């Protein structure tokens, strides 16, 4: 099977990935759904989480992460310049930015994703945020939504301000947890 771009992300019931200030404290950090986050999707945890949990990245689900500049900023603010050293890290920005040598900055993330998809490897994790996901929406092969039982009312939308363009996704799997989180997986219709 060819390499996929997978948008794996926490989202509110009303489709927001962060509150209007960019925070996500309203998402549940504890509960039985974390068995998936810390297990099957442990490649999508930052290195400081692996250290805190005493685990190693499995390197079985993703080998690359793609994120927008605003998504990297909280890590930079915390003094972490390379949050996912076990992955190839691609960060989108249209500006000249200083980044860690382990991070590749690109002004053309769509082209980079096309190049990566043409290469062999594990799937590519589209980390977010909404603006980048909106730009890469035509290239998204799979959605894995961690849908938390909370309504935000407003915030950062799942696909930013992407223009209307209905695109069907077929349901693949849905797992409901006692915590109230539902992990839903959809594959893009080809
Ligand atoms: N719920 C979750 O699991 C989750 C996961 C990730 C992020 N988030 C949240 O998402 C929020 C950030 O989302 P966001 O929509 O504000 O920003 P974002 O997509 O993370 O970053 C936007 C920036 O990325 C660059 N960019 C985006 N599209 C581009 C393109 N097509 N070409 C070149 N550069 C591009 C631009 O950077 P420049 O301005 O430098 O040009 C743009 O300003 C944060 O609050 C974060 O907490 C939530």
What does this structure look like?
The chain is of the alpha/beta class and 190 residues long. The protein has one domain (5-19, 27-151): Dihydrofolate Reductase, subunit A (3-Layer(aba) Sandwich). The chain is 19% helix and 29% strand. It is built from 5 helices and 10 strands; from the N terminus they run ββααβαββαβαββββ. The protein has helices at 34-38, 47-53, 69-77, 109-117, 130-136, and strands at residues 5-11, 16-18, 62-68, 88-92, 103-106, 123-128, 142-147, 156-157, 169-176, 182-188. The strands form 2 sheets. Strands 5-4-3-6-1-7-10-9 form an 8-stranded mixed β-sheet. It starts with a strand and ends with a strand. The model has no long low-confidence stretch (mean pLDDT 97). Residues 9-10, 17-18, 22, 24, 67-71, 92-95, 107, 109, 127-132, 135, 156, 160 line the site of NADP nicotinamide-adenine-dinucleotide phosphate.
């Amino acid at each position: 099977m060819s390499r996929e771009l997978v948008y794996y992300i926490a989202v509110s019931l009303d489709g927001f990935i962060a509150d209007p200030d960019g925070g996500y404290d309203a998402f549940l950090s504890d509960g039985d759904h974390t068995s998936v986050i810390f297990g099957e999707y442990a490649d999508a945890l930052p290195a400081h989480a692996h250290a805190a949990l005493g685990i190693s990245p499995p390197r079985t689900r993703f080998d690359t992460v793609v994120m927008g500049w605003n998504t990297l900023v909280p890590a930079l603010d915390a003094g972490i310049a390379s949050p996912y050293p076990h992955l190839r890290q691609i960060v989108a920005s249209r500006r000249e930015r200083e980044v860690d040598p382990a991070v590749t900055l690109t002004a053309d993330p769509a082209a980079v994703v096309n190049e990566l998809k043409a290469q062999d490897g594990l799937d590519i994790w589209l980390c977010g945020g909404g603006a980048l996901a909106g730009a890469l929406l035509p290239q998204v092969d799979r959605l894995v939504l961690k849908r938390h039982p909370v309504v935000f009312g407003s915030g950062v939308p799942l696909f930013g301000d992407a223009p209307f363009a209905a695109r069907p996704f077929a349901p693949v799997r849905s797992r409901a947890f006692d915590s109230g989180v539902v992990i839903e997986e959809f594959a893009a219709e080809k």
